[in-house]
Amino acid sequence: MNDFLIPASNPPAKIKPGHIAWRSPSNIAIVKYWGKYGQQFPANPSLSMTLENAYTETHLFYKPRAANDEAINYTFDNQKNRAFEARIQLVFKSWKEYFPFLDTIHLDIHSKNSFPHSTGIASSASSMSALALCVVALEQLIYKRFTDKEFFQKASFMARLASGSACRSVFPCFSVWGKTDHVEGSHDAYAIPLERFHPIFASLLDDIIIVSSDEKAVSSSAGHVLMNDHPFAESRYTQARRHTEELNQILKSGDLDRFGEIAEMEAMTLHALMMCSQPSYTLMLPNTLTVINKVRDFRRDTKLPVYFSLDAGPNPHILYPSDINAEVEGFILNEIKPLAEEGKVLKDHCGKGPFQLS
Questions:
Q1: Which of 63, 76, 190, 288 could in theory staple to 156 by disulfide, Cβ–Cβ 3.0 to 4.6 A?
Q2: Residue 168: other Cβ atoms inside 10 A
Q3: Exposed/middle/buried for 217, CB within 10 Å: 0-12, 13-18, 19+?
Q4: Whether the model pTM is above 0.90
Q5: What phi, psi does 109 have (nearest 5°)?
Q6: Residue 86, pLDDT score
């Protein structure tokens, strides 16, 4: 999009060596994005909750590039990771049109997660949004051309090119990605924040149950491709549009029970789509299903608003408002934690969005 291109009439300032760092969170899609077209555009709108404690920290060290310098050096958790580095190279290739100054800069990029990567907790959302925020911050340092709104809009646009769900992580609390007539300003090219929602949703807690920290057998990228010829694709996209419209209203009204119903229906639909694709595959594990059934039984027995969601992996998210934390805490400790790998439960909540570390 031309709005995100650097005007040729805007000459760059001289670049001196420096350092930029951002922390950006993951997010949990309540309405799922599954299926895409073109250059990372969504086949359906999605609506997500930004997390707080599941995040990526990315440090970007930059300097003018010497003749024999590599363009990028990348480490994850203080180690070289060739697979990740290859993906970063592809990301920067897709970004080149929008960041022409990168041709003259050497970048040392160091990232680390607060949670296991590639396990279905949207690690690409946090990592790619953190990277996009760093590079857009570098652009702002060089060109000084953005308002705050423009800064985060471009960061969302660039994050989308790297990983679709990443575009939602640059905003706090709740955001929508994908054009829908029912959310003003919504767009396929970037996410927008939802600024009006009932206080009950700002209090939501999210306990992420690490059933398995193993890398997924089928990546989300491969799963999206399988939607191209999926027998239920069009009905799914219709459902997602309807759920996004309804959920946008629910967030304003405070109907927590209907919020939970949609969250669970979306989670199960996502995994049903995987099981009905060609070829078919399954990411849920036996303990995933056990957690789901225990959440349903607990809700039935206690009448408390406790719900589950799943991203594209085996690890359930248990969602509930903070005012019932005391009642749910015992349930998690006694019934759910024994089902987690080494008892790993990540305590998270509706988050404030990314922030700059330096």
A1: 190
A2: 32
A3: exposed
A4: yes
A5: -115, 125
A6: 87
| pLDDT tens string 272-288 | 999 999 999 999 999 99
CA dist., res. 324 & res. 223, Å (int): 36
By the 10 Å C-beta count (0-12 exposed, 13-18 middle, 19+ buried), 80 is classed as: exposed
Q: How far apart are CA 168 and CA 219, in angstroms?
A: 19
Tokens matching residue 83: 């697979």
User: pLDDT by residue (tens digit) across 216-264?
Assistant: 889 899 999 999 999 999 999 999 999 999 999 999 999 999 999 999 9
Q: Which two tokens stand for residue 322?
A: 């903070």
As beta bridge partners, residue 62 has 18, 107
